[in-house]
Design goal:
The protein contains eleven helices and 45 strands. It has about 725 residues and is of the alpha+beta class. Among the domains are: about 140 residues, no CATH class; about 250 residues, Rossmann fold (3-Layer(aba) Sandwich). It has an eight-stranded mixed beta sheet with strand order 38-39-41-40-42-43-44-45, sandwiched between helices. Strands 13, 14, 15, 20 and 21 form a five-stranded antiparallel beta sheet that branches. It comes from Parabacteroides chartae.
């Protein structure tokens, strides 16, 4: 009987397609229909639907440049500036041949490492090349072995740090490889990112400003439990265990070494005990004599900014301490003023919002530079005098990002972007101009070069709508009140293509709900994903709301989830459901929910906590039991299982397995090192014990996210599930 009912639903869906897409629908009926390959990254035709852009757009001194075909074009700021061809692939190949190097078949990806010179750096055929585009010649080149990982060059490109396996090496101008560490135990890792990439950590080596010393992380994981990851591609499956410290369990221990190439010696910073604290946000002093660390206790509620002597490793001073009853989460290292090495900028949430603070090197607060119920999202640079600091913030709206500058002496703040939307800025080295790439809900992409003093802009690109020939849904944004009755939450609503206001449509809530994520922005299509557009084409309403607990709204907004994951976030999502049900075209009896990772946790939780509201859910890579999650993230938001047993119990979805009524599909990558496979497998066991019946799908060979050519398959799988059970 179940198979027969599924067959009837499937046939009804097919008839719906035939009726909807063959009968006239006004302008929509005359437009083309999307495939998932058109809309999903990894799809065969996905690239043709990306808004047009300028490749490799960046500054080289006061010249902006970008690649177009086989040429690199450039110009100066100003409305009357004229672009010229700086060089071509042919002229680059001539220079490569003259240097005895192999030619390139296309323009390589290049970067600028020294804005005082007209030089670009790129790598081709295992050779790193410095090319002077103005002189039209190769300045220098160095061979790079394909087995070298985590490569990190000095600013002058003379020294390279890299890792082989878990050890650190350096190679200098003489091209002789020097062994910095020689640890034989695989449980010791040198020169790589630590603390599972939390706290803004993304690398493991740090050259001093003048390139004469190298600081690096050394992580001892020998005390951390091995976690089994199984490779099923071998004839006999192979175990590839990882070190995965779960909440409340033994953590790894990190130290910081400082290697001096001139002496060949390494000293380690005397960071002391306890050893399982977090050493984050490493920064050098401008003179290369000191190292600054933000040191966080394992509880993550006390942060010390500490200065060390880089030559001896001795701790010099604790400059200041920040504490919070929930958690402190430093994300950015100290930033010294370019013209005053005795002062630095520190970013902090201490007043409830991320703002900028000016300190002297003795730890004395000079002044708070920014203040308000909004956050600074990024620092983009200084002007040539070092007196004005440029930064991005949400002051206009949490949904937008704009460029501002603050005068460090007077405190006067100026806004430099005027058009609505989300701006991405590349500041010229002297701060006299900036490249501004921005979009908004109805603007796919605009690129301008703006002069700071005059505010005049030169438009380099105005992208057209890549979907203009296709049936496209209406996208609406707005606000609703959170469950607390006062906080505004931003939502995005994608309506069905060719919607008939007199009919009712099924709706899917796409959810994340956790920290460090914001799904609704004033960007192209209001940040709607390709899958949202496809589901609208299939006749669904797709709704997303950034509940409390998500990013970029300040400490109180985010920390409402502390020790009680899934409580306030779900309450806000239900407020979104109430809004959905109030819409005359939404079928309140046909509501689904979908999310990945934290969103997978939310999806499963919503299906189990509100079984009479949600009929269908698809949870990808879901956290099921937070005691199985790693300590850095898990203990920040939940403390340890011993300290917070009630919170862990309330968020343990295995204990709710018996509540399942609707159709729930769980999806997991079998080598997921983030939300380990154990989560969804143990949930299946709990459902068996309780006599409930979820569905399950595994992507072999994929980690936490299904990417590449398999991603359209994932989207098709999810779509079919909603078509089968919610349509």
């Amino acid at each position: 009987m179940m198979i027969y009912n599924q067959y009837k639903r499937r046939m009804a869906s097919i008839l719906f397609y035939i009726v909807c897409f063959t009968l006239p629908m006004g302008i929509h009926g005359q437009n083309k229909q999307f495939t998932l390959d058109d809309l999903i990254p990894g799809g065969k035709t996905y690239s043709k639907f990306s808004p047009r852009t300028l490749k490799q757009l960046q500054w080289s001194g006061t010249t902006y440049l970008y690649a177009k075909g086989d040429s690199v074009l450039g110009g100066k700021p100003g409305k009357k500036s004229k672009e010229t061809v700086l060089f071509t692939r042919a002229s680059l190949n001539d220079a490569l041949v003259a240097a005895g190097l192999k030619t390139v078949s296309g323009l390589p990806a290049f970067t600028v490492t020294d804005h005082d010179k007209t030089e670009l750096v790129f790598e081709s055929k295992q050779v790193r090349v410095q090319y002077d585009w103005k002189a039209g010649k190769v300045v220098s080149f160095r061979k790079v072995d394909e087995n070298w990982k985590n490569c990190d060059w000095t600013a002058d490109n003379k020294w390279l740090a890299f890792t082989e396996d878990n050890n650190l090496r350096v190679v200098g101008p003489d091209e002789k490889v020097v062994e910095v560490t020689a640890d034989q135990d695989k449980g010791i890792v040198n020169g790589q990112s630590v603390h599972r990439n939390e706290f803004g950590i993304s690398k493991g080596t740090f050259w001093s400003p003048n390139g004469n010393k190298l600081a690096f992380y050394r992580m001892d994981e020998r005390m951390v439990t091995d976690y089994p990851i199984v490779d099923v591609t071998a004839r006999t499956s192979v175990a590839n265990p990882i070190k995965y410290p779960m909440a409340g369990m033994k953590s790894h221990e990190v130290t910081v070494g400082v290697y001096n190439p001139s002496t060949g010696k390494t000293v380690f910073l005397q960071t002391g005990t306890p050893k399982d604290k977090y050493l984050t946000n490493l920064a050098w002093s401008p003179d290369g004599q000191s190292i600054y660390l933000a040191e966080l206790n394992r509880e993550q509620n006390v942060c010390n900014l500490v200065r060390y002597d880089a030559n001896t490793g001795k701790r010099e001073v604790i400059l200041f301490t920040e504490e919070d009853s929930a958690y402190v989460e430093p994300q950015n290292p100290v930033l010294f003023l370019p013209q005053n090495s005795s002062r630095f900028i520190w970013q902090s949430m201490r007043d409830g919002y991320n703002h900028l603070y000016l300190y002297d090197i003795n730890g004395k607060l000079v002044k708070q530079l920014t203040k308000g119920d909004w956050i600074v999202t990024d620092i983009v640079g200084f002007d040539a005098s070092g007196k004005n600091l440029f930064y991005m913030s949400t002051e206009v709206s949490p949904m937008e990002r704009h460029l501002y500058s603050v005068n460090l002496a007077s405190g006067v703040i100026k806004k430099h972007t005027t058009l609505e939307g989300t701006h991405q800025i590349k500041l010229a080295p002297g701060g006299e101009a900036f490249i501004d790439q921005f979009s908004s809900q109805h603007n796919p992409r605009t690129i301008q070069v703006t002069t700071v003093a005059s505010g005049q802009s030169l438009e380099l690109l105005k992208a057209s709508n890549p979907y203009k020939d296709y049936a496209f849904p209406e996208i609406v944004t707005g606000t609703i009140k959170a469950a607390d009755g006062t906080t505004d939450l931003y939502y995005r609503l994608v309506k069905p293509v060719g919607m008939d206001e007199t009919k009712k449509y099924p709706a899917v809530v796409y959810v994340y709900g956790g920290p460090h994520a914001q799904l609704v922005n004033n960007t192209w299509m209001a940040d709607a994903r390709g899958w949202d557009i496809y589901m609208a084409q299939m006749g669904f309403v797709v709704f997303t709301v950034d509940s409390r607990g998500s990013a970029n709204r300040g400490a109180a907004f985010e920390q409402v989830i502390h020790r009680n994951l899934g409580v306030n976030e779900m309450a806000d999502q239900i407020k979104g459901v109430e809004f959905l049900k109030s819409l005359p075209y939404v079928d309140g009896d046909k509501l689904g929910v979908h999310g990945w990772s934290y969103g997978g946790f939310m999806t499963t939780n919503l299906m189990l906590s509100y079984p009479d509201i949600f009929k269908v859910g698809v949870a990808g890579g879901p956290v099921i039991d937070w005691q199985y999650y790693e300590i850095m993230y898990g203990e920040r938001y939940m403390d340890t299982p011993k300290e917070n047993p009630e919170g862990y119990k309330n968020a343990n979805l295995k204990l709710k397995a018996g509540n399942l009524k609707g159709h729930l599909l769980l999806i997991h990558g079998d080598i997921d090192p983030v939300v380990v496979w154990q989560h969804s497998l143990t949930f299946l066991k709990a459902c068996v014990n309780e006599g409930t019946y979820p569905d399950y799908f595994v992507y072999p060979g994929h980690e936490h996210n299904v990417i590449g050519k398999d991603r359209p398959h994932l989207s098709e799988k999810i779509t079919r599930y909603f078509m089968d059970y919610l349509k």
